[in-house]
Amino acid sequence: MRLILMAVALCAALMPLSLRAETAAAIAAANAAKIEKPSRQTIGPVIEALVASGDPMAAAVLQAWASKGLGLRKSDKAFFLIMPEGDGYKLTDLTGADAGTAPKSEISELKPNAGVRGLIATALVQFTLSDPNPAKRAEALTSIARDPKTEHLAPLRAALAGETDPALNAQKARLERLLTLRFDPDSAQRVTAIDGFGADLGIDLRGALNPLLATTRLVATGDAPPAANIANELSPGRDLTEADAYDLLVAANLAPARLTAAEQKAALAANIAGGMVGGIPLADLSDQTARDRAYTALEQAGTVPTAATSDEVTAAVAAHRYYDVYAEPDPAVTGAAKAALDRITLKQGAMEVVDLGLDALSLSAIYFLAAIGLAITFGVMRVINMAHGEFLTLGAYTGYVVQQWVPNYTASILIALPLAFAVTFAAGVGIERLVIRHLYKRPLESLLATFGISIALQQLLKNIFGTQARPLTAPAWLDGALTFNDVVSISYIRIAIFVLALIFLCFFLWLMKRTRLGLEVRAVTQNPTMAASMGINPDRINMLTFGLGSGIAGIAGVAIGLYAKVTSELGSDYIVQSFMTVVVGGVGNIWGTLAGASMIGGLQKVIEWMNPSNTLAAQTYMILFIILFIQFRPRGIIPIKGRAAGD
Amino acid sequence: MKQGILARNPSVLIFLALLALFTLIVTFGSEAYGAGFVSTSFVKTLGKTLCLCLAALAMDLIWGYAGILSLGHMAFFALGGYLIGMWLMYARTEEIVVAALAQDALPATAEEIRQGIATQIFGVVGSSDLPLVWSFAYSLPIQLALVILVPGLLALIFGWLAFRARVTGVYLSILTQAMTLALALYLFQNDSGLRGNNGLSGLQNLPGLGDVGQDQLSVWFFWTSALALAGAYIVLSGVVGGKFGSVIRAIRDDEARVRFLGYSVESYKLFIFTLTAVICAIAGVLYYPQAGIINPAELAPIASIYLAVWVAIGGRGRLYGAVIGAAFVSLMSSLFTGGRVPAIDLGILRIDWVDWWQVLLGVVFVLVTLFAPKGIGGLFDLALHRRSPDRKGAPLGPEDGSLQEKEALE
């Protein structure tokens, strides 16, 4: 603060007497010539005088000037704020008083160039930062944060004291610290500012710190220049390749340009004389060393310019030293910034792990949802249903059709969920009655028959709905994401899917352990003959169970359709993963399915995190892992114990 | 009493005679060597069909005889195609690059040629280096050896892991399906070194045979495919006809009992798995130069399932069934999807076969599985009045996966 005051006082002392006038009008009048034809070099003191004058009109004058709202009356060279009105201008003089109107011909509009407008804008920052309207102040802060400059620091500090809004005050204080660490002339102040942030995760902080640590490559014949703030020394071959090192030398004019193979070839081809180049027969030049010899011969004859061959390159690279040098000259600041960035990176890493965990959880929930129908049909009944994927698709398309009829998204989803269950339940029961019940003893055949159903259904859906993706829109309250900080966030739709998965888990447990149907299902799967003799109708139970599994697949299809694109191939994208989930988890146990989904989802996210550019590879490695995993636990994570396991 | 293969399998002679007759008809009907009523593209289709029949033979051996429903054998087929495609593409590109560099004043260096080939082949995926897997692509003998070795080794390792862990039945099916999916996903990446989803193309041009027309090449490939099919048919008849065949059928019917009798079930399964993988790879080697292009979509799990569909429709557990099924379904498929079958107008609905063929295939497949487990091959039993002994359809073994007695007759 004191520094600024001193600077202002110094300016004031150096200024011509006329500049120390009281009002904006007086300053303008005194510097009329400069204002009329301003240039970037000369106008600075005038603008500062206007700012320093304390006249409430100064801000209006500056603003008008920057936006071509300041005019000069040709007759008496007086300045006015002008406002187009009809054919002429409405005039306001610089004290704020109305000055009537004037035709266009009498007024010349002042048009400062971009450089001057920039100076004015900077000067105006101070006014906008103290503007009575909080929205204006917030806007000014945002514009500074977007493009911070040294000049902003002083006005920002000046505006800090008068701030009444606590939120804006915090924002101003943070921005002031960010500007301090970049632009303050006092390095101790900057270090304090950097350390004050601790391990803050804000992107703005990283944006402010990173330029401090920007480096340039420097090449030196001996030791580095003593003034340079050296980040580290690079040794060729380890930190940078020989080619890069040589490029640096060439760029620093310390070595001649290197000869590329193509250039060499062109040079040789240009110097063919009587079937020879540099005394070497043309036919021998199908070899790089022969070409090098020919070129050296030409070099010695002086017909081609000297250029570095590879041994010369190696020698030149070894004769120099290479440094990364910070653009920022102060080692204390770069040290503090590096430490701060390290702290941030560490904390960010921890946060990324949390985020990864959330991602994995939601992917697991999706896999679980896709697989839970299979956990019933395959896990409990031991029927391989390859058409399971098509049931997912069917559910998603049901949701799409409902949205065509019910425009309200919330209502349509609420209708679609039970309707999808009904549709796929019916389809499941139909398939069970017509096909699967004949194949209970022949699992391989039921695999193939359901595959036949799968291709027929998939093509049928393609014929009906076309090949392009159909929209299934989530209600507005599921848009957006739950954000914890700049790193950790999770979209509401994924939370909804997670909740849905939990509901299904509870529903499944309740159904199997607490209801008559569950009891009968378990009895029929364990021993159909015995169950039948106890008065249970196995046919009916099998039909209901299969229908139930299919119905749940339909509901899962609606959920998956909300975030994936709905095409006839939606289901086939999930079918292999779903089977994997059930097999890895352990057949016949819902907790196993849960464990399988968690493992597959988690694993896939971890592999993707290690190699983020490549989700295809992640799936490949995941499947390979599963194949290996089955080696060690052939019956899955949670195997069935006892005699029921013997199949 | 020891009998020759042919004596034990009279069907082999009939099959070979029919195949020879078919080959002669196609040759004398081709544009290059005969009357020209069989177009070059149809010769190619027939040649490709023979390769698919060869793959179906392998599928029949592993599924119909050994009872292992592998849903990943088309991965080996495509792998064979990729391996031969690498040589075809490399050698062909080399010809082009050498011809282009010969225009220069200086003779080209080996490095320049290599660089030129790499840029030509991999420019499409934004790379100009030859990946490691292409190390031997310059040499036909090495690449041909790899055609056997790579799919063979993959099958050996995968089979060893799977059979050792006693993964059987539907679990094994799902596992093999996962294997082919993993391979397909891997090849879909651009940095897999095999041009990502662009795949390998231009395989129909044989290096060094630039002046031989496609009409001739197509017939040559047709002959080779027919020869390979005939050879495989004879060899496999021997394999399934002898004692070895009895053991693998016993494994299919009751694995535990065979194990208790002292046979090393895992070794038998592993042998069959690897053998069929290699046969599939050879079929792929012959198939893809006729198709001209290969991409990772060929490894999609659906392709392997189609293989099973062909064998099931043709009739499993008999070699000619697999051949008939593959030929019949794949030819019908190209007929229907090629738009050569008139659409049926039902008033409200127009059955356009390009769109509805898959629906028909799916439904037919379900019907065959349910009502005609013997497939088309069952018609021969009817014609020959061969009837199964009536054991009221009891399963042949205690396992859920065992065949019903009525389906097991050869």
Automatic annotation (TrEMBL), chain A:
<keyword id="KW-1133">Transmembrane helix</keyword>
<protein>
    <submittedName>
        <fullName>Urea ABC transporter permease subunit UrtB</fullName>
    </submittedName>
</protein>
<keyword id="KW-0812">Transmembrane</keyword>
<keyword id="KW-0472">Membrane</keyword>
<feature type="transmembrane region" description="Helical">
    <location>
        <begin position="615"/>
        <end position="632"/>
    </location>
</feature>
<keyword id="KW-0029">Amino-acid transport</keyword>
<feature type="transmembrane region" description="Helical">
    <location>
        <begin position="543"/>
        <end position="563"/>
    </location>
</feature>
<keyword id="KW-1003">Cell membrane</keyword>
<dbReference type="GO" id="GO:0022857">
    <property type="term" value="F:transmembrane transporter activity"/>
</dbReference>
<dbReference type="GO" id="GO:0006865">
    <property type="term" value="P:amino acid transport"/>
</dbReference>
<comment type="similarity">
    <text>Belongs to the binding-protein-dependent transport system permease family. LivHM subfamily.</text>
</comment>
<dbReference type="InterPro" id="IPR017779">
    <property type="entry name" value="ABC_UrtB_bac"/>
</dbReference>
<feature type="signal peptide">
    <location>
        <begin position="1"/>
        <end position="21"/>
    </location>
</feature>
<keyword id="KW-0732">Signal</keyword>
<dbReference type="GO" id="GO:0005886">
    <property type="term" value="C:plasma membrane"/>
</dbReference>
<feature type="transmembrane region" description="Helical">
    <location>
        <begin position="575"/>
        <end position="603"/>
    </location>
</feature>
<feature type="transmembrane region" description="Helical">
    <location>
        <begin position="492"/>
        <end position="512"/>
    </location>
</feature>
<dbReference type="Pfam" id="PF02653">
    <property type="entry name" value="BPD_transp_2"/>
</dbReference>
<feature type="transmembrane region" description="Helical">
    <location>
        <begin position="413"/>
        <end position="431"/>
    </location>
</feature>
<dbReference type="InterPro" id="IPR001851">
    <property type="entry name" value="ABC_transp_permease"/>
</dbReference>
<feature type="transmembrane region" description="Helical">
    <location>
        <begin position="365"/>
        <end position="384"/>
    </location>
</feature>
<dbReference type="InterPro" id="IPR052157">
    <property type="entry name" value="BCAA_transport_permease"/>
</dbReference>
TrEMBL record, chain B:
<keyword id="KW-0472">Membrane</keyword>
<feature type="transmembrane region" description="Helical">
    <location>
        <begin position="319"/>
        <end position="336"/>
    </location>
</feature>
<dbReference type="InterPro" id="IPR043428">
    <property type="entry name" value="LivM-like"/>
</dbReference>
<dbReference type="Pfam" id="PF02653">
    <property type="entry name" value="BPD_transp_2"/>
</dbReference>
<protein>
    <submittedName>
        <fullName>Urea ABC transporter permease subunit UrtC</fullName>
    </submittedName>
</protein>
<keyword id="KW-0812">Transmembrane</keyword>
<feature type="transmembrane region" description="Helical">
    <location>
        <begin position="293"/>
        <end position="312"/>
    </location>
</feature>
<feature type="transmembrane region" description="Helical">
    <location>
        <begin position="220"/>
        <end position="246"/>
    </location>
</feature>
<feature type="transmembrane region" description="Helical">
    <location>
        <begin position="356"/>
        <end position="384"/>
    </location>
</feature>
<dbReference type="GO" id="GO:0015658">
    <property type="term" value="F:branched-chain amino acid transmembrane transporter activity"/>
</dbReference>
<feature type="transmembrane region" description="Helical">
    <location>
        <begin position="12"/>
        <end position="33"/>
    </location>
</feature>
<feature type="transmembrane region" description="Helical">
    <location>
        <begin position="140"/>
        <end position="163"/>
    </location>
</feature>
<feature type="region of interest" description="Disordered">
    <location>
        <begin position="391"/>
        <end position="410"/>
    </location>
</feature>
<keyword id="KW-1003">Cell membrane</keyword>
<keyword id="KW-1133">Transmembrane helix</keyword>
<feature type="transmembrane region" description="Helical">
    <location>
        <begin position="267"/>
        <end position="287"/>
    </location>
</feature>
<feature type="transmembrane region" description="Helical">
    <location>
        <begin position="45"/>
        <end position="64"/>
    </location>
</feature>
<dbReference type="InterPro" id="IPR001851">
    <property type="entry name" value="ABC_transp_permease"/>
</dbReference>
<feature type="transmembrane region" description="Helical">
    <location>
        <begin position="170"/>
        <end position="188"/>
    </location>
</feature>
<dbReference type="InterPro" id="IPR017778">
    <property type="entry name" value="ABC_transptr_urea_perm_UrtC"/>
</dbReference>
<feature type="transmembrane region" description="Helical">
    <location>
        <begin position="71"/>
        <end position="90"/>
    </location>
</feature>
<dbReference type="GO" id="GO:0005886">
    <property type="term" value="C:plasma membrane"/>
</dbReference>
